[in-house]
Amino acid sequence: MTTEGHFGADSPTEDLTGVPGRGAWNGSEDTSVYPTMVFEGPQPEVRQRRRIPARLLIMAWVALLMAAVLILVNVVTWSALTTRNAERVDGALTQEIGEFQEFAAIGVDPGTGEPFTDVSTLVRVHLERQYPDEAEILFGWVEGTTTAGGGAGGAPGGAETPAGRIRQGQEPPFDLSADPEAVTAILEDPNARGTADTPAGPVQWEKIRVLAPGGEGASGWFVIGYFTEADEDTVTSTMQTIALVSLIGLLVASTAAWWVAGRILAPVRLIRQTAAYITEEDLTRRIDVSGRDDIAALAEQFNSMLDRLEGAFTSQRRFVDDAGHELRTPITIVRGHLELMGDDPEERREVVRLVTDELDRMARIVEDLLLLAKSQQPDFLRPEEVSLAELTSDIDAKVRRLGDRDWRLESVAEGVSRLDPQRVTQAVVQLAANAVRHTAPGSTLRVGSTLSGSDVLFWVTDEGPGIPAEEHGRIFERFSRGGGAARGDRGAGLGLAIVRAIAETHHGRVDLRSAPGAGSTFTLVIPTTAGKEHV
């Protein structure tokens, strides 16, 4: 881009200093013409932002949600399994201690029916009647030595009862009672429950103090231990299986989400591809709609939008072509007269008159084109509550000035309607002007208004040549003239198009009843509530 103030002979920017009237702004002698900025070389391409495909986003969100759910399931399952193991161990310890307390409270040897006289016999007899679980160990420990008298449960003949451990039952994972250090640690622990480490894994234990029957003799301990390593291994194995299944499920769910998202988004991709191929010159491509879901509804709306765009571009192209043709004629006429104009004053006055007439016609065409363009805007109408009788009287007074005709007011509607009085007047006056243009002086022209159901009708009837049925629709198009147009009619063919635009913006219509040789009746039909949407 060049912005220098001085240019060489090869500069692509035109030097304006030598052109009269262009070297400085006419309104100020101190204002200079700024040099034109010229872009040189190809314009840089706008970098497009990298976009993440919607299919990938959907799959990622599904996978993330699935992973969160599976993690939660794994955590809850692990918590439930460990809690259940802890409850099972606690129940086993409590049950064994309770059974021993109940047995000791009875204090009678079931085999002999005699009361126990020493701790060793009590513990031994109880252990003989127990069937511990594979992960349990039951043993007793007697402190010191005692001499028990003969009798049931005691050492026969008053022999000494040896101190130390008493264990019965099947072989446990590890004989905790045979490990003096472990036994000492358990018995000297101030707590009734605890955990000890063994070669077979951790063991949870509970102990209870056993006093000698009758308060005489050596005391002891009853200990129950539960090895938890097997249960922990079961929990670990179960969690590994669940984690593996969760991982496989996550992969399957992600794959399924990718496939389903692809199926769902296929119409969206087709819409994007169709939009990429659509140009102003080719709006004929459409999307095949299948299904009844939201995507199908989107495709239908997209096709409807393309229909509207195609119609709008077609109308615009035709409008531009017609406008160019209509404006080209007066421009050619003006240029031709100006090029051939001589020095004779009379000839100059005639040329000026003709040029002025053509320029006026061009101005009318431009005004009509602007009016038609504005009719598509929401502020085209300014509706208000209008007395139909007063509006009809005003229209009748205005159309009588259009020409020397036998004007007759046939009917006047009574009541109030919401509409734009200026636009309605403009439309009816336009219809009356067309009637004047296609009738002879002195012809009868009838105007009027009436209420018909929920519509208000304004009409203009003439005694002109009439309009063939095949032209009834065409004459309302832009730049269209009926086959019966009067000789010398230089209208642009926009009048009836403006009338139709005014009627349609009121959500109404224009009806035509005509036949060759029978005159014509144009009726403006407007709903009485037409202006509510434009408030």
UniProtKB/TrEMBL annotation:
Where it sits in the cell: the answer is: Cell membrane
Q: Per the UniProt record, which EC number(s) apply here? A: 2.7.13.3
Domain HAMP, by residue range, is 262-314
Tell me the InterPro entries matching this sequence.
Answer: HAMP_dom, HATPase_C_sf, HATPase_dom, His_kinase_dom, HisK_dim/P_dom, HisK_dim/P_sf, Sig_transdc_His_kin-like_C, TCS_sensor_his_kinase
Which GO molecular function annotation, any one, does this entry have? Answer: ATP binding
Q: Which reaction does it catalyse?
A: ATP + protein L-histidine = ADP + protein N-phospho-L-histidine
- For region Disordered, the annotated ranges are 149-177
Lipid biosynthesis among keywords: no
Enzyme category, top tier: transferase
CDD domains assigned to the protein according to its UniProt record, in alphabetical order: HAMP, HATPase, HisKA
Domain (Histidine kinase): residue spans on this chain: 322-530
Answer whether the UniProt record assigns the keyword Kinase to this protein.
yes
Location (main, coarse): membrane
> PANTHER family, alphabetically?
SENSOR HISTIDINE KINASE TRCS (PTHR45436:SF5), SENSOR HISTIDINE KINASE YKOH (PTHR45436)
Can you name this protein?
Answer: histidine kinase
Q: Which organism is it from?
A: Nocardiopsis codii
